[in-house]
Amino acid sequence: MAVCAVLTASCSSVPASSTEPAASEESIAPAPTIEIVPAQGGQKVRPDKRIVVTASGGALQEVNVTSADGKSVIEGRFSKDNSRWVSTETLRPSTRYTVTASAEGQGGTAQATSEFRTLTPARQLKVADVTPAVKGEKVGVGAPIIVTFNQPVANKAAVERALKVEAEKPVEGAWRWVADNQVIYRTAKFWPAHQKVTLNADLTGVRAAKDMYGVEDTTTVIRIGARQISTVDTRSKTMIVKRDGKVVQKMLISAGKATTREYTTTSGIHLTMEKANPVRMISPGRKKGDPEYYDVLVNHAVRISNSGEYVHAKDNVWAQGRQNVSHGCINARPDQAKWFYEQSQRGDVVIIKGTDRELEWNNGWGFWQLSFEEWKKGSALKDDERSTTSPDEDSSQNQQNQQEQTDQEPVEAPAA
């Protein structure tokens, strides 16, 4: 809806006097004047430039900005004295707009109109993918929001400002650029469970690089499910799974045998990334005939890193709880691995302790390996431009946030 204002002027009357001289034509105040930028007939106007309407000799009464097709109405704000109006949002590229304004002063009223057209960008910026965001999917409390664009972004700050995260249970978070076409949102603490998070990418008209502008807005809804956090101790060879603060499974496991670095399970805060049944696993960089070569199918595999680590089924029950014999994965009894597979959500937290190999922050979704202060350094914005996720206007659950956080697990990587 366009922001407009209609002001009613009032004045006190002065008692008539027969001795008061009549006003001369020279003493009558002139009608106000209105200036609109962009001016009438403008072509190739940059969509990220603001519309400015200024009145002299009076106050603006109303300003309306609409597109020729009627699909876009631009909002704006008046100055305190109503002498100036400035648009507060970007314009659509390749679109004709009409600005109408009226003003009133002691000399009467005035009206002005400006029609102009925004430029057609040489390159269009769009959201190519948001992960994790499969329709109907619920994700874990550690889940990131990964946004991939169809073009490399040069003006990262402008694009980042256009990405707005709204949560039913607000929590502090920040974006981090990991590539010119990809940015990732991570919270300071794990998401409060059982809520809806909405990502609005208001890219239309945003100047992302030279001759490149956003051409469409997108909205993505992400649903946070149960708070499932698993803790693996490679020394005691156990795995404990908690859901919403309660222990729901205890498992004996076998971790990496640690004869080489590649066969050492990584310690740190992992996130479940994907799952499949079965998964073919082939030893990286090794050929047939090598004693360490393997090519096997494993059942109920849940990936927790990009370096080949999974929680999966293995029938070597003799080793589970007694000896670490794997090539780096977490092996569990087939029936318990199947249970874990079925219960896992992308973004669930798996904390592994007890080895001398740390998970790298950019190994899969190892983002929680960085402190939040370090994470924020990858943002294109300054601290005062970042804020807690805003609440979803339809939510009545915001007050539950603090209670959820009382069960917060550590967010720093545990000691090896």
UniProtKB/TrEMBL annotation:
Pathway: Cell wall biogenesis; peptidoglycan biosynthesis. It comes from the Bacteria. Coiled coil: none annotated. Keywords: Acyltransferase, Cell shape, Cell wall biogenesis/degradation, Lipoprotein, Peptidoglycan synthesis, Transferase. Residues 396-405 have a biased composition (Low complexity). GO terms for biological process: cell wall organization; peptidoglycan-protein cross-linking; regulation of cell shape. CDD domains: LDT_IgD_like_2, YkuD_like. One of its GO terms (molecular function) is peptidoglycan L,D-transpeptidase activity. Residues 379-416 are annotated as: Disordered. InterPro entries: Big_10 (IPR041280), LD-transpeptidase (IPR050979), LD_TPept_cat_dom (IPR005490), Transpep_catalytic_dom (IPR038063). Gene3D superfamilies: 2.60.40.3710, 2.60.40.3780, L,D-transpeptidase catalytic domain-like (2.40.440.10). Residues 228-353 form the L,D-TPase catalytic domain. One of its GO terms (cellular component) is extracellular region. PROSITE patterns: LD_TPASE (PS52029). The active site is at H312 (proton donor/acceptor), C329 (nucleophile). Pfam families: Big_10 (PF17964), YkuD (PF03734). This is Lipoprotein-anchoring transpeptidase ErfK/SrfK. It comes from Thermostaphylospora chromogena. The lineage of its organism: Bacteria, Bacillati, Actinomycetota, Actinomycetes, Streptosporangiales.
